[in-house]
Amino acid sequence: MREIVFDTETTGMDPSEGDKLVEIGCVELMNQVPTGRTYHQYINPERDVPAEAVAVHGLTFDMLKDKPTFSEIYTDFLEFIGEDSILIAHNAAFDMKFVNAELHTMGHAPLPNKRVKDSLLIAREKFPGSPASLDALCRRFSIDLSSRELHGALLDAQLLAEVWLELMGGRQHGLGLGADDDKGAGTQAVSSLAQKDRPFREPRPHAPLPEEREAHAAMLEKLTDPLWKDAG
Fold this sequence. Notes:
This protein has 232 residues and is of the alpha/beta class. The chain has one domain (2-172): Ribonuclease H-like superfamily/Ribonuclease H (Nucleotidyltransferase, domain 5), CATH 3.30.420.10. The chain is built from nine helices and five strands; from the N terminus they run E-E-E-H-H-H-E-H-E-H-H-H-H-H. The protein has helices at 51-57, 61-64, 70-81, 92-105, 119-126, 134-140, 153-167, 182-194, 210-221, and strands at residues 2-10, 21-30, 33-42, 86-89, 116-118. The protein has a five-stranded mixed beta sheet, with helices on both faces. Strand 4 (86-89), helix 4 and strand 5 form a beta-alpha-beta unit. The termini are far apart.
């Protein structure tokens, strides 16, 4: 099973009002194990970036004006996510709204909602009444947030991938296993422990010495009415 955990940064809240993507970050999971493959791209929005958006992600138009436009990168993005991977995002409706608006501008069909899983909705179902922001979930699962001063699409996707694995049963799910086959890899891991080389040690003698026997007999002579006298 191939999953793509992704996040976006934008110039605002609504593509129907002219807001655009400025960053996309993706992390690949295979059988719920990170593969190390990522996709990351800053995007020239071809418009100004309002101060309130810059306060969130720190990306100004001056920083983005020499980056490729969405029309120049969308085929690479689509190639990375593939046609049958599951797409995972936090508050997925927001990210999908922007991605599909940009794809519509390119004359491309939208990505279907049936491919998408929303980690925000799943977290709210698992922890009703508790905070379910990405920061709150990272704190719940003891995921390091020290590098997150501002929002960033790739960093947030990487943090979300860790959160997602916890929501699906814990990061230990794939610990020490390859991405190919969990069951087979687990069997191999157990057998490797059983076959681990250990140094040979000569058997040690355990028979009591004559003086130990004498000391034991002397101790027994001092006992009165021992519990085992009537045993049998």
